Amino acid sequence: MGLIVVVVIISLSLVLIKLWSSQPRGKGSKPYFSDPKNRKLQKRLLILLNGDATTAERLLKQQRQRHQGESDEWYLEKVIYDLERDRRY
Q1: Is residue 26 one of the residues assigned to a domain?
Q2: Is the entire prediction scored with pTM above 0.70?
């Protein structure tokens, strides 16, 4: 079971690298791999989505389209916030 979680986390990271490398960088945006906080946020997002990397990519892409020019950290936090908010109701 632990190996599956590691594989899913690595897969999500690779998907996010590809997604972010194809997007223009906004204000204060850093490559996610240079910011340990982003790695924690990625893991948190993946846990909230039960390992569904495709859904994570889709949600991040939607936020990038709606709110252009924000940092990678902002997009991750926004998606996580929205998921947690929606689960409260």
Answers
A1: no
A2: no
Q: What is the pLDDT of residue 33?
A: 43
**11-36 confidence digits (pLDDT tens):** 878 777 776 666 555 544 444 445 67
Residue range of the domain that includes 59: 2-17+35-88
Q: What does the DSSP assignment read for 6-73?
A: HHHHHHHHHHHHHHHHTSPP-TT---GGG-HHHHHHHHHHHHHTTT-HHHHHHHHHHHHHHSTT--HH
Q: For residue range 54-82, list pLDDT tens digits in order.
A: 999 999 999 999 999 999 899 999 999 99
Domain count, the chain: 1
Q: Is residue 44 part of a domain?
A: yes
